[in-house]
Amino acid sequence: MDFTLSPEHEAIRLRTREFIEQHVLPLEKDPANFADHENIPLDRLAVLQAKAKAAGLWAPQSPKEFGGMALPMVAWAAMYEEAGRSVFGALAFNCSAPDDGNMNLLAKVGTSYQKEKWLRPIVDGKVKSSFAMTEPAPGGGSDPSMIRTRAEKRGNKWVITGKKWFITGAGEAAHFILVAKTSDDPRNGLTAFLFHKDQPGWNIDRRIEIMGPEEHGGHCELTFDGLEVADEDVLMKPGDGLRATQIRLGPARLTHCMRWLGLSKRCMEIAQAYVNERTGFGIRLADRESVQMKLGEVAHQIAIGRLLTMHAAWKLDQGDRARKEVSMAKLHVADTLHNAADVAIQLNGARGYSKDTILEWVYRAARAARLVDGASEVHKMVLARFMREEGREFWNWSGGNKV
């Protein structure tokens, strides 16, 4: 395993870094760019995205024939980390959740018809998308086998009824991927469907207020009361919904880690700049051993997180499912982001707690990191199960589960 970036991918990383410095970070200084649930207004985002397209830094996860960059995952890791240094960075390059995971899934398993109809507009940036799986109790959350939303075949259409909640981006999405139950088979009982926001038979009941900050479209509760989906808009085959979910969520979890590493580094940059200048009791904060210990610990965590993330990305590029590696990265980097924001706020004192920096924004966003795409406890259970089943082979040097 050699994680040295190729000259091509290193050039992309550096161009991404330059773009963030020149075009994105300055936007964080204007409070008007944090309107509407503390995210950048869509009209201002459109201007930024046009610049990213012109710079050739657009949709790194998508096929070139659809306007993307078709990068391998190890190159995603480098580019997304640089993009993640700004709270608007991933949005600028069209590699932000949930669109990022939806584009990757559609590119991998969609039919030619589905890619033209559902994928191309997302890659173009003309529409936003959402992934509707999570349900209120007693429905499915981290355990997809508990999904209760049902799809019944009637002629050449599927009729869907049920409820979903905490569906990210649903308020702005035009294209949806919906997971529903089509049989009681424990492994093949779920199916993934594609639908458009203008189709009848469903409704957004409410936009759920959260701690924030929020993605565009928020987190919504949905009711399905007779939504009809044609056979050609079934993603993969009937009964393949769990597999589609797994294909999407593994890389999606890892791309969170890539972006979070960038945000973690940004927190440290803000903290380091402040302690270099701030003095107290006749000494710079940066010269205090207690401050150095805090900064050194987070630097250590970020470096470990990058290695875990790159290892998982490399295995995914080899065709491995990398379930253990993704769970390890997700656990570690989620904690690292939260700690980086916390340490940076502590070292900045009242300034860190204020809105004079983005630290309080990151701190609130970081709390969600231990919940999204599987709570930390679930990933620990996954690792414990693998260790129980594999014994000392849990730590083997090669092999794994192919897709």
Plain-language structure description:
The protein is of the alpha+beta class. It has three domains: 7-110, Butyryl-Coa Dehydrogenase, subunit A, domain 1 (Orthogonal Bundle); 128-235, Butyryl-CoA Dehydrogenase, subunit A, domain 2 (Beta Barrel); 242-395, Butyryl-CoA Dehydrogenase, subunit A, domain 3 (Up-down Bundle), CATH 1.20.140. 49% of the residues lie in helices and 15% in strands. The strands form three sheets. Strands 1-4-5-8 form a four-stranded mixed beta sheet. A hairpin with a 2-residue loop joins strand 9 and strand 10 (283-284). Helix 8 runs antiparallel to helix 9 (289-317). The longest helix is centred in the middle third of the chain and has 37 residues, at 241-277. The two termini are 20 Å apart.
The number of helical segments is 13
Strand and helix order: HHHHHHHEEEEEEEEHEEHHHHH
Query: What is the strand content?
Result: 15-25%
- CA radius of gyration is 21 Å
Mean pLDDT: 96
| Model regions low in confidence, pLDDT < 50 over at least 5 residues | none
The best one-word shape is globular
Q: From the coordinates shown, what is the CATH architecture of the largest domain?
A: Up-down Bundle
**Major sheet strand order:** 1-4-5-8
> Can you say what the CATH homologous superfamily of the largest domain is?
Butyryl-CoA Dehydrogenase, subunit A, domain 3
Task: Report, as a whole number of angstroms, the end-to-end distance.
Answer: 20 Å
- Pairing-aware structural class of the strands and helices? alpha+beta
Q: CATH fold name of the largest domain, please?
A: Butyryl-CoA Dehydrogenase, subunit A, domain 3
Give the CATH level 1 class of the largest domain: Mainly Alpha
Question: Quick one: biggest sheet?
Answer: 4 strands, mixed
Task: Please provide the count of β strands.
Answer: 10
